[in-house]
Amino acid sequence: MDIFVCIKQVPGTTEVEVDEKTGVLKRDGIDSKMNPYDLYAVETAIKIKEEKKGEVTVLSMGPPQAAEIIGEAYMMGADRGALFTDMKFAGADVLATAYTLSQGIKKLGNPDLIICGKMTTDGDTAQVGPEIAEFLDIPHVANVKKILEIKEDSIVLEMDMPHTIEIVDVKLPCLITVEKGIYQPRLPSFKRKIATKDREIPFYSLKDLDDHDEMKYGLDGSPTQVKRIFPPEANTDQEIWKGSGEELSERLVDKLGELKFL
Amino acid sequence: MAKIVINQKKVINPQELIKLCPFAAIEYVNNYLTINAACKMCNICIKQGPEGVFELVEEQVEAIDKDKWRGIAVYVDHLEGDIHPVTMELIGKAKELAAKINYPVYALFMGHDIKDRAKEILHYGVDEIFVYDQEELKDFRIEPYTAVFEDFINNIMPSIVLVGGTTIGRSLAPRAAARFRTGLTADCTILDVQENTDLDQIRPAFGGNIMAHIHTPNHRPQFATVRYKIFSAPERSEEIHGQITYCTVESEKLVSKIEVLDIKKKEREESIEDAEVIIVAGRAIQKEDDLSMIYELADLLGAHVATTRPLIEAGWADPRKQIGLSGRTVKPKLIITCGVSGAIQFVAGMNNSECIVAIDKDEKASIFGVAHYGIIGDVYEVIPRLIEKIKANKVNVEDMAYASTN
Fold it and tell me: Cβ contact (<8 Å) for A220 and B1?
């Protein structure tokens, strides 16, 4: 079975601030770890490989330093990887990102199964996976909780819905996005680290893709644009109370009564 | 192609220029300053850098005819005909936006055996509801549902499409948006509309630490998803003025490679998203046993108990009780946070609550930035006394009631 996993490098922390006057993002340090949700996707792929044989390929779009997370996936047991990196991919929104990755997937082969994490911790959109599936014209199932069976030409999954669990049989090739907790991600092993340290991480740019049209990538290929960024508003209509535990609890009881919660 | 061009002749202090970029996208290699793929096109280097070093070069793209697209469509989110309340919330927002630019409000309702339910939507003030009631649409399967979406958009050409940020919506909206190669902004918390019909989409980014104002200047339709409990549903009106239009899509277009084998009901869990009053336990709670006072207070107020992430990680509560960006979004009438410092990830999941009471001993805790009533005190001092007083209060009321009946 040929399995592809899409992964992303995200900031090590989401502790960022905006300078209120200039609207500039104060963020020192750079992208630095694999999106935690992607670890579950990589683990799922390796689990399937162990059971059914096959090959696991990880791919990512990002700056050159994102090669680090491909190396990390090698240490978990991925067989090959690729990084799609080009100044022309810069400023990509959901659509342009999904299109670039779908082109990247076509470049690398014809996978039976594509696995994505539930979402990223920096974008929080959870929408790139379904858009990749659309561009590849294959079915997708989001919120996969469990893989029940892998058959010759289909895969049986548990999909997590708010009040139900749906058991679905999806024909291959397909794309799934997996919930955290589907499997416990393994730690990169030292043995594999040594074994994979010289393994190549190929870089591809726009000219390596089938579709060379610059207008479909990066900022130009992004229908949505960020007009401005600003810090979240604080509530201005507020009261601050100080005092002893006795005084504070007394006031709160009165207030809750006044607001008709008691 | 919009790109940032560097005027190498004006580069004087390259090391200083490198520091301009928060994404480390500026490199200095072989006495040459370049921008690599880490660039997010945020233009900070242009705005903050010395005059003329960084320059934005844009080629004009042909503008689309926005007048061809008209109306605001809301996707009716449902499971087997049970309409998710986020639908009404979106209709409320759609009406508000539509009034500003004189647009109709449409609803798109697809499924099987749903005809009877369509009328209910009209009570919330939709001008026209388009119903696709076909057997192939019984279960949510991505290909047929996207095909219906495509048919609807091609026929009606709405300018704006709002979809609930539910399990289904988060799967369907991106698929439909990609089919039209248009923009989609996920989890918007504020929506507004410009006179030129551009939708202002505001959403938290970077885990809620900043807000991003996003627009879709040259693509239609403009897709946005919104989570449950962000907007308010309009009052249900007895009168109906809108109409129902039945549509169908040819069966050949509704084929799917997905087969639903079984649907298992989950045990109905108490959902904090539907709670009217919530008490939140935060990190100031020192040990698991101490949660008992939180539960006692919740009992007295008829409230649900929720927690912040550290308590979930400690295994003290079910992950479904977590509020925040990585948990649930809540919008109760009253929320009392007990010993919660108010990390921005948490606040993003509750700051739309109608009344926020925060109890924490750290005066500088950021929770006090969003609280309506900020109580600076130790939870161990305040809560036990609060419980006592509420109990005493209740006894009094009961005594009075007892006395008055005798």
Answer: yes
> Does one domain contain both B218 and B304?
no
Least CB-CB distance to A90: which of B39, B181, B259?
A: B39
Report the chain A residue with the minimal C-alpha distance to residue B356: A238
Same-domain status, B29 and B119: no
One domain for residues B99 and B131: yes
Q: Are residues B11 and B125 in the same domain?
A: no
How high is the pLDDT of residue B254? 97
Task: Answer whether residue A94 shows pLDDT above 80.
Answer: yes
pLDDT band at A21 (very low <50, low <70, confident <90, very high): low
**Euclidean distance between CA atoms B190 and B224, whole angstroms:** 11
Residue of B37, B47, B184 lying closest to A85 (CB–CB): B37
What percent helix, strand, coil does chain B show, rounded to 5? 35, 25, 40
Diameter over CA atoms, chain B:
96
What residues make up the domain containing B86? 66-254
Assess whether pLDDT exceeds 70 at residue B83. yes
Residue B402 lies in a domain: no
Measured between CA atoms, the residue of chain B closest to residue A16 is: B209
> Which residue, of B224, B254, B284, is where some domain finishes?
B254
Residue of A59, A64, A66 lying closest to A10 (CA atoms): A66
CB B308 within 8 Å of CB B279:
no
Q: Are residues B362 and B219 in the same domain?
A: no
Write the burial class of residue A55 (CB in 10 Å: 0-12 exposed, 13-18 middle, 19+ buried).
Answer: middle
Pick B257's closest partner by Cβ from A170, A219, A250. Answer: A170
Contacts of A21 (CB under 8 A, 6+ apart): none
- Taking a contact as any Cβ pair under 8 Å apart, which residues of chain B between 48 and 87 contact chain A? 48, 61, 79
Helix (H, G, I), strand (E, B) or coil at A3: strand
In a domain, B261, yes or no: no
Instruction: List the single residue in A24, A28, A241 with the smallest CB-CB distance to B375.
Output: A241
Chain B interface mutation, best of A37, A86, A89, A134, highest count of B Cβ atoms under 10 Å? A134
* CATH code of B222's domain: 3.40.50.620
The last residue of a domain, from among B201, B226, B254: B254
Kindly list the residues from chain A whose CB atom is less than 8 angstroms away from the CB atom of residue B181.
Answer: 95, 223
Query: How far apart are alpha carbons B56 and B78 in whole angstroms?
Result: 46
Higher pLDDT, B402 or B255: B255
Are residues B82 and B149 both part of a single domain? yes
Pair B383, B244 in one domain: no
Helix and strand numbers (H, E) in chain B are 10, 22
Q: Is residue B235 part of a domain?
A: yes
**Chain A residues closer than 8 Å to B262 by CB:** 166-167
User: Which B residues 90-129 touch A at CB under 8 Å?
Assistant: none
User: How confident is the model over B329-344, as a mean pLDDT?
Assistant: 93
pLDDT at B153: 98
Q: Which residue of A has its CA nearest to B370?
A: A235
In chain B, what residues touch A245 (CB-CB under 8 Å)?
377-378, 381-382, 385
How many domains in chain B?
3
pTM of model > 0.90: no
Quote the minimal CA–CA distance from A99 to chain B in Å.
Answer: 9
Name all domains of chain A by residue range, CATH numbers in brackets: 2-216 (3.40.50.620)
Q: Do B71 and B32 have their domain in common?
A: no
